[in-house]
TrEMBL record:
Endpoints of the signal sequence: 1-21
Gene Ontology MF, one: peptidyl-prolyl cis-trans isomerase activity
PANTHER family: PEPTIDYL-PROLYL CIS-TRANS ISOMERASE-RELATED, PEPTIDYLPROLYL ISOMERASE DOMAIN AND WD REPEAT-CONTAINING PROTEIN 1
Species annotation: Brevibacillus parabrevis
Protein name (database record): peptidylprolyl isomerase
Length: 369
């Protein structure tokens, strides 16, 4: 049985751990290798350190094209000093930079260092850089900082990069998915026991999924079919079809068909998407996203166009389903019916307990507002 697969996303940032190495007793070099210091203990950053690191990131961005000010922010005695200068040059290529976050991922002290606080930190530095041709590039880098100086003026300085992201284009896209249908456009009218749901289809973006849905619906195979899987604040699912022999019916292609992921379509609230049992296993199952909210954790893990991320926050949806389930339509009228269906009482398998709502019929009509 095919189901809309739910995912628990567990994210972890792989951070290189530096092997403890005894600090050389020889005379200090003109450059300092911050990677070879002895770590004595780790601790959770207190509020002051968090804010100082955040302030440092803002200063690094602000002064990225100002050599005099930039010089104060880099640890010149680091073996990675020149590499850090090259890193700053990559920042300088952007016309504008918006710092999303700069937080210590690892904060520790070291032995045998004459700096006042002897702090070292590996910082997650996430930002969006805007190019001259109006592209928005999202990057998440790991940079190393050292806090040094005397009691009257300890400051953070950058000693090198630990890891650099290649960057992802998150430029805005045209969110046509949420537009009203045009006059003369073919729309879906889905009549259910709970009311009527009207949807747009996107044959230019997901032709196989649209043709499959229309082909099955026009044969009447969805008529009197129940929404067999219902999870409030998530989605409603239908399309569990069996033939006279009790076997599950295939798609119109006679077999499962491939996913059709598109950069312009998202699992917003109201999205019509294919249910599946894994990659490229689309057949007869479909679902409508009902979630009125979005989980911020999933947004943080998703590389979304900026306006799509904002729209998720505004109207809800399930961002983690993007690029896992094919979106091929969108509800434009009747979301109150979807909410009513989602509110049914269900068993432990998310199947409605009594009188499950049925799809009476699915029609395709020309939109004429």
């Amino acid at each position: 049985m095919k189901k809309l697969v739910s995912f628990l996303v567990v994210a972890s940032m792989a951070i290189p751990l530096f092997s403890p190495v005894a600090v050389q007793q020889a005379a200090a070099s003109t450059t300092h290798n911050y990677r070879t210091e002895v770590q004595t203990h780790q601790f959770r950053p207190h509020g002051g350190d968090k804010q100082e690191v955040a302030d440092f990131a803002q200063a690094l961005v602000k002064h990225r094209t100002n050599p005099a000010e930039l010089d104060k922010l880099l640890a010149k005695d680091s073996l990675n000093y020149y590499a850090m200068q090259e890193y700053v040059k990559t920042l300088a290529q952007f016309q504008k930079i918006e710092v999303v976050e700069a937080v210590p991922q690892k904060l520790y002290t070291v032995e045998k260092e004459d700096a006042y606080n002897s702090y070292r930190s590996i910082v997650k530095f996430k930002y969006i850089g805007y190019t001259a041709d109006n592209k928005a590039i999202e990057k998440t880098d790991l940079i190393g900082l050292v806090k040094r100086g005397n009691k009257d003026g300890a400051v953070w300085q950058a000693w090198g990069t630990v890891w650099q992201d290649t960057g992802i284009d998150v430029s805005n896209v045209k969110l046509f998915q949420l537009e009203k249908p045009r006059k003369g456009e073919e729309i879906v009218v889905m009549t259910t026991d709970a009311g009527v749901i009207k949807l747009r289809l996107f044959p230019d973006k997901a032709p196989k999924a649209v043709e499959n849905f229309k082909g099955l619906a026009k044969k009447g195979v969805y008529n009197n079919m129940i929404f067999h899987r219902v999870i409030n604040d998530f989605m409603i699912q239908a399309g569990e079809l069996t033939g006279p022999d009790g076997k599950e019916l295939p798609s119109i292609y006679g077999k499962d068909f491939a996913d059709e992921f598109n950069h312009d379509l998202f699992n917003f609230r109201g999205a019509l998407s294919m249910g599946n049992a894994g990659p490229n296993t689309n057949s007869t199952h479909f679902y409508i996203v009902q979630s009125p909210n979005v989980d911020q954790e999933y947004l943080d893990l998703s590389a979304l166009p900026l306006n799509a991320e904002a729209k998720y926050k505004e109207i809800g949806g399930r961002a983690y389903l993007d690029n896992r389930h094919t979106v091929f339509g969108q509800v434009f009228e009747g979301m109150e019916v979807v909410d009513k269906i989602a509110a049914q009482k269900t068993d432990e398998n998310a199947k409605p307990l009594t009188n499950p709502v049925k799809v009476k019929k699915i029609e395709f009509v020309i939109y004429n507002p």
